[in-house]
Write a structure and sequence with these properties.
It contains 15 helices and no strands. It has 402 residues and is mainly α.
């Protein structure tokens, strides 16, 4: 059972670690992200060390029989401490979280040290990747070793389940609430593994065995661990999905603004920012879609400024009357009128015909409220959608400023 479930759990842990690796690299000062990545890494290592081929390989390479036991279980104790670090930083102020995290990590290191000492007192005669616990069930040192490990494991899972349920009730984010409840469920399932291991200690004292419960123990341990890992992944996957959606929206906005940008560039190519003057070391930054979209929006705003002095109030009034008759109102009306003003202003600039000072007006959408970064982009996109679909004129290269 162990060699069937552990590879599946290893895959889940590896995928989770790879998903979190990007967050760790971009949030280097976020202890919670680092601790959560460590949870997946340590979980994967604990499963890897326990698989029979790796167990036998480590025995040959390291020259110590059954060393996979303290390695795997040490990883489990460490990841239990790291899970508490994550919850502490998610639910407490930074100063309090730092202090509590040190206590959890210190307790984890103390348990790992105790496990190594007790394991060194065992006298393993042969590798036992299968039924290791049953083989040593009657050894007093192993009874002490198993008691320490199961106590730490059970306490850690109980604290984890309790803390997750509490934090889930306080969280305002749906993905976090769902993820924490799945983690709590996984921690509860793993208690079946704890119960069997506690039974192994008691059964050893009475010269009996719980061999028939081994498959149940490994099933509870692996299924509970997979649920826990999946629960931790839910908020991360939700955040990354939102990030991907936002990136897709940026690309669509960038190309959606191209017709509006071409309208201005065809008449006033000097609005294009001189990217060739950027330091080559910084040029890669300017290829990012966020910078390119921001740059396009700035260039469009510059184009609007160029033709602002050619906006005729009569054009605006006629456009408003026309689009109101079509049933437009609100922001859609102001965007349609602005599109007409842009085309009329560009034509007036090309002819050198400025309206009289008392006939100057503002863009119809100039009073539109924009509070978020993408609101301004959305306002420009609304205008772009009301432009007629026609090829832009070739830019007048002679107007490009040096």
């Amino acid at each position: 059972m162990k060699d069937l479930l552990h590879p599946i759990s290893l895959v889940v842990a590896t995928l989770g670690f790879l998903c979190l690796l990007r967050d760790v690299l971009t949030r280097r000062r976020d202890p919670a992200s680092t601790a959560l990545a460590a949870v997946f890494l340590l979980s994967g290592l604990s499963f890897l060390f326990s698989i029979t081929p790796m167990w036998n390989y480590l025995d040959r390479v390291l020259g110590t029989v059954n060393l996979s036991v303290p390695l795997a279980q040490g990883c489990v104790v460490a990841l239990l401490a790291c899970q508490q670090v994550v919850l502490t930083y998610w639910g407490s102020p930074p100063q309090v979280a730092r202090q509590q995290s040190r206590r959890w990590l210190g307790a984890g290191l103390a348990v790992i040290a105790g496990l190594l000492v007790l394991f060194a007192l065992l006298t393993p005669s042969a590798p036992h990747p299968i039924n290791f616990t049953l083989y040593y069930a009657h050894d007093d040192w192993y009874a002490a070793y198993l008691t320490l490990y199961v106590t730490a494991y059970t306490v850690g899972e109980l604290f984890l389940a309790r803390a997750c349920w509490r934090l889930a009730r306080r969280s305002t984010r749906g993905s976090v609430r769902l993820g924490l409840r799945i983690v709590a469920l996984g921690a509860t399932v793993t208690l079946g593994y704890s119960a069997v291991r506690i039974g192994d200690v008691i059964a050893g004292a009475f010269d009996t065995s719980l061999a028939e419960w081994e498959d149940f123990a490994w099933t509870c341990g692996d299924v509970g661990a997979m649920l826990t890992l999946i629960g931790w992944l839910v908020p991360t996957i939700s955040d990354q999905a939102q990030s991907v959606q936002y990136r897709i929206k940026q690309y669509r906005s960038y190309y959606g603004l191209r017709p509006l940008w071409l309208v201005f560039y065809s008449e006033a190519p000097e609005i294009e920012l001189p990217i060739d003057r950027v330091d080559p070391a910084q040029r890669r930054r300017f290829r990012r879609i966020s910078i390119r979209l921001y740059r396009r929006a700035v260039e469009i705003r510059d184009g609007r400024f160029v033709i602002r002095q050619y906006l005729d109030a009569a054009v605006r009034e006629a456009s408003e009357a026309h689009h109101r008759a079509r049933g437009l109102h609100g922001q859609e009306l102001s965007a349609a009128v602005t599109a007409d003003q842009i085309l009329a202003g560009i034509a007036a600039r090309a002819e050198g015909a400025r309206p009289a000072p008392d006939q100057l007006t503002e863009f119809a959408d100039s009073e539109r409220q924009t509070s978020r970064p993408m609101d301004d982009i959305d306002a420009l996109l609304d205008v772009a959608r009301h432009l007629p679909h026609q090829p832009a004129r070739a830019p007048h290269l002679e107007r490009v400023s040096g």
